Amino acid sequence: MKRLLLTTLCILASFCCIYSQDIINGHYKKALVIGAHPDDPETMAGGTILKLKEQGCDVVVVYLTRGEAGIRGKSHEEAATIRTEEGKKACEYMGVRLEFLSQIDGATVVTPEAYKEMENLLKKENPDLIITHWPIDGHRDHRNCAILVFDAWNSCDRASDLYYAEVMTGHQSLNFAPNSYVDITSVKEQKTTAYLMHESQKLVGEVTYYHDTMEAMRGIEFDCKYAESFIRQTNNKQ
Ligand SMILES: [Zn+2]
User: Fold this and answer.
1) What is the CATH number of the domain that holds 170?
2) Which end of the chain is more exposed for a tag (fewer CB within 10 A), N or C?
3) How far apart are the CA of 143 and the centre of ligand 1, in A?
4) What total number of domains does the chain contain?
5) How many Cβ atoms sit within 10 Å of the Cβ of residue 66?
6) Ligand 1 centre distance from Cα of residue 39 (Å)
7) Is residue 41 part of a domain?
8) What is the pLDDT of residues 38-69, one digit of tens each?
9) Would residue 226 count as lying in a domain?
10) CA of residue 104 to ligand 1 center, whole Å
11) Domain limits for position 209
C-alpha cells in the first residue's frame, strides 16, 4: 500500500513538471524567437510560431546571423544576400516580422559587444515570451546564441518567460529533456513549408527526416500526432 502511494505521488509529481501547452495558453502578447541562422527559428519552433500567430500574438523572428557560411561555393556576401531573402520569404509566409543581428555565421562570438547587442534587442522589443536554442548543442553558433539570450534575459530582470527549443536532436541539440509541449498537428504542413523556403539549405532529406521524426516522437510523448517541445527556464518572474 505504501509503495502504491509512493508510486502515485511520483507519477503526479512528474505530471506537475510538464507545462502542457503553456506557451500557447493565450496570455502572451509579444514573442521573440531567436535562432543562430536563417531557418533555425522555423525548424525549432515554426509550429509554435504559427499557433501563437493564430492567437493574435505579435511574433518577431530574430536571426543572429545571415547564414554567411551556409552555401558552398558562394562568398559570404553572396550567401548572406540569398539567405536574407529566404528568411524574408519564410517570415512573410508565417506572417511575422523579422530582425537580423550583426554576427557572422560560423564565427559567432560571445563578447561584451555581443551581450550588449542582444540586451538592446530585448529592451527594444520588450517581449513577454522568448524562445531560443537549448545551449547544449553540437553547433557553436547555437550554443553562443543561447548564452547571449540567457545573459540578456538575466540583464533585463528576467521579465519575460524564456524557453529553449531543440534542433536536430541527437545531432545538434543534446541532453534535451523537455518539460513543455505544443501540439502542432494542425499546422505541421505549414511549418514544413515555411522552413523549406530556405531553399539554399537543401533541407529536404536529412533535416526533414530529423524534424519529422522529432515532431512525431514528441507527439507520442504528448499524446497527439505532432508536437514541438521545449524546456522552460526556471526563475521566470511571471
Ligand atoms: Zn543553425
Assistant:
1) 3.40.50.10320
2) N
3) 10
4) 1
5) 25
6) 7
7) yes
8) 999 999 999 999 999 999 999 999 999 999 99
9) yes
10) 12
11) 25-232
Average the pLDDT over each of 5-9, 23-27, 48-52, 116-120 and give the range with the smallest value: 5-9
**Dist. CA 221 → ligand 1 center (Å):** 25
Q: How far is the CA of 63 from the centre of ligand 1 (A)?
A: 10
Residue 193 within any structural domain of the chain: yes
User: β-strands 180-183, 58-65: how paired?
Assistant: unpaired
3-state secondary structure of 100: strand
CA 121 – ligand 1 centroid, Å? 20
Beta bridge partners of 179: none
The Å distance, Cα 49 to ligand 1 centre, comes to 17
> Grid coordinates standing for 157?
530582470
Contact in structure between 93 and 197 (CB atoms under 8 Å)? yes
Does 16 map to a domain? no
Neighbours of ion ligand 1 (CB under 5 A): 36-37, 40
Nine-digit cell string for 101: 543581428
Cα 1 to ligand 1 centroid, rounded to whole Å? 51
Cα 217 to averaged position of ligand 1 atoms, centre (Å): 21
How do 19-20 and 180-183 pair as beta strands? parallel
CA of 9 to the centre of ligand 1 (A): 40
> Region 184-199: what's the mean pLDDT?
97
Single-letter code of the amino acid located at 208: T
What confidence tier does 25 reach under pLDDT thresholds 50, 70, 90?
Answer: confident
